[in-house]
Amino acid sequence: MMDAPPVLLTRDDLATGLRELVRRLQNADGPVRIQLIGGAALALSYVADRHATVDIDAILDPAETVLAAARDVAVRERWPDNWLNDAARIFLPSGFGLRSAEWTTVFDDGRVIVDVATPETLLAMKLHAVNRRGRREQRDLAVLLPLCDVGTVDQAESHYGDYYPGDSFTPRAVAVIEAALSEPRVVRSPPFPDLGPRPVQ
């Protein structure tokens, strides 16, 4: 029996899922924070035409509360339970470098806060990933490198070292970065989707 193909989530799907998640978290005990990283952060904030992704990678606090609400959304939308997960948090910069992970708040209604990693943080994480997964990261690097005004491999390595000190690029990673730098890419950064009503100021 063949495995079912993965569910691919478009930018509209991601927005729908987050909007419903925020609605379900309105009555949570205490504040809730969702910090978006990875491909979903790119699609929602920086690259309107990015290809679909299989999940949303995020830092969640409190994780148990958010994941329970996400499972309810999965049932409603007929998505996999892990459409929102925090598995990638282990790849977040540790804070031992010159720079730590940086965020932009895109939604805050006093109960639920949604942040998106800055392009600089996403670039550092993608450079970290390129050492492990190679060419799979090239399309995102082709967007993030110019978005962060990084135009050479040396500049990319310097940027990477600010977040992940002591690591260096593999020859394979250098080849992927060079290929990404050679891609002409016009970035159209969209406004972040509306996730629901906020308190009147």
Spatial shape: globular
Largest beta-sheet characterization: 5 strands, mixed
Q: Please report the number of helical segments.
A: 7
- Level of helix content? 40-55%
Mean pLDDT: 91
Kindly, what is the distance between the CA atoms of the first and last residues, rounded to a whole number of angstroms? 56 Å
Count of domain modules: 2
Cα-atom Rg, whole angstroms?
Answer: 17 Å
Uncertain residue ranges: none
Going by helix content, strand content and strand pairing, the class is alpha/beta
Helix and strand topology:
Layout: H1 11-24, E1 32-37, H2 38-46, E2 56-61, H3 63-77, E3 84-85, E4 103-108, E5 112-117, H4 119-133, H5 138-147, H6 153-163, H7 171-181
What labels would you give this structure?
single chain, 201 residues, 42% helix, 5 strands, five-stranded mixed sheet, 7 helices, alpha/beta
